[in-house]
């Protein structure tokens, strides 16, 4: 509120915050008190989509098994050095968020899978004591489990559709509010093409409808509901105006 008073209420159209419950409550209070819009951070909303998908038991198991593979490699110096030599780099790369990192790690595993298999069928590993441990046998089984890798490929393709949009809206190069609607529409189209499960599409639609969908986004974008959205925005920012032609007068 201090910032609004400092710059002047007439000069504030939108306030963007995180999606924490305290921020949501404060944002709604600001909209009641002033003629402005509060919108949650688009990147954080998409990150919450990642989180919600990752909570699904089947997905959590895929992520957990992927983590089991990487932990086994990174917890043993000899195997880690061998992996870096054969694969030409690391598996784990930190993403912008915890949940985006799950996608990046699985994608990296997929891309290095062929080289990793070479290590697991090598005589060097076969003669090493690691291959005779219980976790070693389990990781080796995972490496050659075709059903597991088919599921990982499917998950990564779905995550990629989200991550592409996440990277765009999280960019500080250009303002992205004007095409948030279009980005989400394209993301949903991509998920349809990928034949994503209905529960995945439900998670995305629910997060979009509950937190991210705003007339302000549509009003500055190319949405089919543009005219109605513009009316809603103008009505909010200038309640005394009788119509669009009087806005700002």
Secondary-structure map:
Blueprint (H helix, E strand, L loop, with lengths): L1 H6 L6 E4 L3 H13 L3 E4 L1 H13 L2 H18 L2 H11 L10 H23 L2 H4 L7 H10 L2 H24 L10 H14 L4 H15 L2 H5 L6 H12 L12
Parallel strand pairs: 1-2
Description:
- With 249 residues, this protein is mainly alpha-helical.
- Helices cover 67% and strands 3% of the residues.
- It has 13 helices and 2 strands; from the N terminus they run αβαβααααααααααα.
- Helix 3 packs antiparallel against helix 11 (198-212), helix 4 crosses helix 8 and helix 6 runs antiparallel to helix 9 (146-169).
- The protein is elongated and about 75 Å long.
- The model is unreliable at 241-249 (pLDDT under 50).
Concise account of the structure shown:
The chain is mainly alpha-helical. It is built from 13 helices and two strands; from the N terminus they run H-E-H-E-H-H-H-H-H-H-H-H-H-H-H. Helix content is 67%, strand content 3%.
């Amino acid at each position: 509120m201090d910032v609004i008073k400092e710059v002047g209420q007439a000069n504030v159209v939108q306030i963007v915050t995180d999606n924490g419950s305290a921020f949501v409550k404060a944002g709604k209070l600001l909209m009641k008190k002033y003629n402005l819009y509060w919108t949650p951070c688009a990147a954080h909303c998409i990150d919450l989509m990642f989180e919600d998908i990752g909570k699904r038991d089947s997905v959590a198991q895929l992520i957990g098994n992927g983590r089991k593979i990487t932990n086994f490699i990174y917890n043993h110096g000899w195997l880690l050095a061998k992996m870096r030599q054969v694969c030409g780099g690391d598996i784990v790369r930190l993403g912008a968020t915890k949940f985006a990192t799950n996608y990046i790690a699985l994608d990296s595993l997929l891309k290095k899978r062929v080289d990793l298999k070479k290590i697991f069928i090598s005589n060097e590993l076969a003669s090493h004591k690691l291959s005779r441990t219980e976790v070693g046998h389990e990781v080796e089984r995972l490496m050659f489990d075709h059903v597991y890798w088919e599921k990982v490929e499917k998950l990564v393709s779905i995550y990629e559709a989200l991550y592409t949009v996440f990277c765009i809206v999280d960019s500080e190069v250009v303002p992205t509010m004007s095409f948030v609607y279009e980005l989400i529409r394209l993301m949903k189209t991509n998920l349809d093409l990928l034949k994503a499960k209905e529960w995945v599409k439900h998670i995305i639609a629910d997060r979009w409808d509950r937190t991210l969908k705003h007339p302000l986004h549509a009003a500055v974008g190319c949405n089919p509901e543009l005219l109605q959205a513009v009316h809603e925005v103008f009505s909010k920012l200038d309640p005394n105006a009788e119509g669009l032609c009087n806005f700002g007068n």
